[in-house]
Amino acid sequence: MTPAKPRWLAAAQLGIFSSSFSTLLSQVTAGQLGRDPLVDWMTVAAIPARDGVLSSDPSTAAIAIGIAFHQWADFSWTLLFFGLLGGCTERLHPVALAALAAPWGLLTSATEWFVLVPLFPFWQPIFTLQQPYWIGFLVHLSSAAMYPLFAWFRWPIGHAPATTAVRFAQRWALGAGCVLTLSAGLGLADALSAPLPLFSRERDADQRYMRHMTTHHQQGIILARLAVTRARDSHLRNLAALMVASQSGENMIFARWWDGWFGEPMPMCSDNERSSMPGYLNLAQMAEARVAADGGFDSTFIRLMSLHHAGAVQMADQEWHSGGDPRLRLMAHAIRHEQQGQIALMHGVDGIEAVRQATRNMFANNL
Questions:
Q1: By percentage, how much of the chain surpasses pLDDT 70?
Q2: What does the pLDDT average to over 267-294?
Q3: How far apart are CA 108 and CA 172, in angstroms?
Q4: What's the domain count of the chain?
Q5: Domain boundary residue, one of 164, 191, 218
Q6: Residues 216, 128: one domain?
Q7: What pLDDT digit, counting tens, does each position of 298-312 carry?
Q8: Are the C-beta atoms of residues 309 and 342 closer than 8 Å to each other?
Q9: Are residues 177 and 44 in the same domain?
Q10: What is the DSSP letter of 87?
Q11: Is the pLDDT of residue 180 over 90?
């Protein structure tokens, strides 16, 4: 009988597989959850590469760094689970490993979101303040969900014994392939403006929210582009570039969903609607940003964009607490988190205070 592979080798091979599965699943499902995956990869890239990697249009290099860093992190967690802790985990039945996927995903994602990224060793608050915790949990869960395959990976290709554990692992792998294929199909349909039907108890309210947030974002993008070229503080310039990228990506998702759900052009907001939107700047305020002296631009931008973001947070919070489509509500929760986080970042929040604010932002009621 062919001997089993060394535990660490099997763990390393499974780590490559599980992290790759997580990357692919994240990529194809992001749009269905109201996320722009390229912006998310760029945000992850800012952890090791710092703020300078942020841009209004995510670069190929930033995306590659973000994916590589994510895969390295997932790979490391797998090595920890089956390598360092292998004395306790290597003999677990795949059913037990499947049951441990959610707790392990919860533990590892929380460790990154609350400690490793915003505090030691990376001291990078952008990730925690930009992305709500549940995104990281879903990503880590998708990786840990591949751990039941360890019983199969433990053996050289073609030499796995026909045990119940190996057969379960093989069926689990087939199921994972089906999930990835189905998700890719739904993701492609979503990208082609053919999402799953609208599931909403408040159709008119959802339409109004999509129109208003799109318009609100359009003004935010104009204001942020001013800071990309005019801000003196490099951190503020990079943060403004992230604002442009994230709000542009969200508007593209709104446009795809609108086309798929309603089959007609999105109506423009009237002047009365714009003036009644919380945080929507008037002509005098926008002119103030444009004509601000170089030495005073940064403070003017922070004040006006903080006001603008606070209004978007209020609009998103209303949608989050509504009976609207679950995808719109999840997206609204992420929008309110990122914009509260960006207000904090504009004011220089970092370290443990960034963790405190990000945690509060997850649960705050801003209505």
A1: 100
A2: 96
A3: 22
A4: 2
A5: 191
A6: no
A7: 999 999 999 999 999
A8: yes
A9: yes
A10: H
A11: yes
Confidence at 365, pLDDT banded by 50, 70, 90: confident
For residues 324 and 202, the answer to whether their CB atoms sit within 8 Å is yes
Residues 164 and 218 in one domain: no
Q: Which residue has the tokens 């903080």?
A: 306
The answer on pLDDT for 367 being more than 80 is no
Close Cβ partners of 189 (under 8 Å, ≥ 6 residues apart): 195, 196
**Distance, CA of 248 to chain centre:** 15
Q: How far is CA 354 from CA 46, 334, 346, 361, in A?
A: 16, 17, 12, 10
Within 10 angstroms of residue 284's Cβ, the number of other Cβ atoms is: 7
pLDDT, average across residues 343-360: 97
Please tell me the distance from the alpha carbon of residue 211 to that of residue 266, in angstroms, as a whole number: 7
Distance CA 309, CA 341 (A): 10
For residue 22, give its domain range. Answer: 7-191
Helices 133-144, 60-79: crossing angle, 10 deg rounding: 60
Q: What are the C-alpha distances in Å from 222 to residues 27, 43, 130, 243?
A: 28, 21, 20, 10
At residue 340's C-alpha, the angle toward residues 287 and 332, to 5°, is: 100
Last residue of a domain, which of 169, 191, 213? 191
The answer, yes or no, to whether residue 73 has pLDDT greater than 70, is: yes
pLDDT (0 to 100) of residue 3: 87
CATH of the domain at 341: 1.20.1260.10
Tell me the residue length of the chain.
367
Residue 30's contacts (CB-CB under 8 Å, 6 or more residues apart) are 36, 37, 40, 187
Q: Identify whether 134 is part of a domain.
A: yes
Answer yes or no: do 52 and 113 share one domain: yes
pLDDT attached to residue 178: 98
Residue 1 forms part of a structural domain: no
Is residue 109 located within the same domain as residue 228?
no
Dist. CA 204–CA 197, nearest whole Å: 15
